[in-house]
Design goal:
A two-stranded antiparallel sheet has the order 1-2. Helices cover 71% and strands 2% of the residues. α2 runs antiparallel to α3, α2 runs antiparallel to α7 and α3 packs antiparallel against α4. The chain is built from seven helices and two strands. The mean pLDDT is 81. With 170 residues, it is mainly alpha-helical. The protein is elongated.
């Protein structure tokens, strides 16, 4: 039954589902920021940018409706972005689990860095994380934001691989 349903759905709808999932993640991030007053740390901001990029690629794929080669290109882009996001989330998890005396010092704000530093230095600073990245905020089922982000990157990467590798019924 599920296999029949899987093959009956157009790839455009499956790409749209990926885009909607990523937009839901962004919406939840904005909810945490503006309703729950949990300001994102530098690594959270990097993860948001990656989710936005994944959202954009899924949306483009849904609009484009690619054939076999195009599906593989979209899948490769989303998998690459997902792996990058998983790496950033893993770094964030690592920083959150450091002993208190090994947590990096808090750095300058993003606005200040963007105004005073070259973009390459800003990216390097963002990827290193800072003291505010060690704070554990919202949790659900004992997992914090970076753990959930890692799982969501994994889910989005697996989703696009499933879309690209499915055999279309004629």
């Amino acid at each position: 039954m599920m296999c029949k349903l899987w093959h009956s759905i157009s790839n455009r709808w499956l790409y749209l589902a990926g885009a909607l999932f990523a937009s839901g993640l962004m919406g939840f991030g904005l909810f945490l920021q503006y309703v729950k007053h949990q300001d994102p740390c530098p690594l959270c901001m990097v993860q948001r940018v990656i989710f936005i990029a994944i959202l954009a690629v899924f949306a483009l794929a849904a609009l484009h409706g690619p054939k076999r080669a195009g599906e593989r290109v979209y899948a490769a882009l989303i998998v690459l972005l997902s792996l990058t996001g998983m790496g950033v989330a893993a770094r964030h998890i690592w920083i959150q689990n450091l002993p208190k005396d090994q947590v990096p010092a808090c750095g300058p704000g993003l606005d200040y860095m963007l105004e005073t530093m070259p973009m390459s230095n800003v990216l390097k600073e963002l990827m290193h994380g800072s003291g505010e990245c060690a704070e554990k905020g919202w949790t659900f089922l004992t997992l914090g934001i970076p753990e959930w982000s890692l799982l969501c990157y994994l889910a989005l990467g697996v989703w696009v691989v499933l879309i690209a590798s499915r055999i279309k019924q004629r």
